[in-house]
Amino acid sequence: MPSSAIGALNLTSMMPENLKKAKMEILDERGKKSKEVEVLFNPSQYTMQNSAKYSMRPRPGSDVPQMTFIGGNATTLQVELFFDTSPVLTTTAVTSTKATDVSKKVKDFEELVYIKGNLHAPPAVKFQWGSLSFKGVVTEVKSTYTKFTESGMPIQARVELSLMSCYSASEKKRKSPFESPDRTKCRMIREDCSIWDIARNEYGDVSRWKIIARANNLADPLHIPPGTILKVPSL
After folding, report:
1. Pairwise CA distance, residues 108 & 25, whole Å
2. CA 221 to CA 198: how far, in whole Å?
3. 185-232 — its CATH code?
């Protein structure tokens, strides 16, 4: 077979019909799909990373610092995509299509880190594949070109994407309920419920009512009108 006829097999035609294709959607300011960027091949793997943020302060007379939880960091997703625009061969080894410049496919992903129109920021995106549905912004795109024609036109590339999750206020409330024990809560004073009752119910210790009083700048905890909303800070 002449070397000029050697190319990539048509992997798309070899895929099972029930194989779910990965896709990247570009979202508008309302969070709705405005455009879809083509993903040629499903990734071989992806990495999700979750982390928490703590502050460390020296503790006098102790070898162990005082550790205080500050909050959670945004979830990140790292995924590598493969692009191939080599000539496609049929089973009879006859070239059915010509090679095209793969950088045109890659450019669609590189533009996801640039400011878009009236958003004054890069667009939000949604990456979906199987059970994964990740909404966020693309923070980094690394493109590596791995194969070229004799004229120097790139026909194969790997694109490493880094995404950081982002959600609207309503979505955050559904994903991270305000009732989570590591977050500040709000409780209402009722006629049958005092600040001491709240301390016992939330902290398991009546004596910690002072924490609630300080957080709410209460001058007289004995006289709190019913209906008052109090912040109950996390410990």
Report:
1. 11
2. 12
3. 3.10.350.10
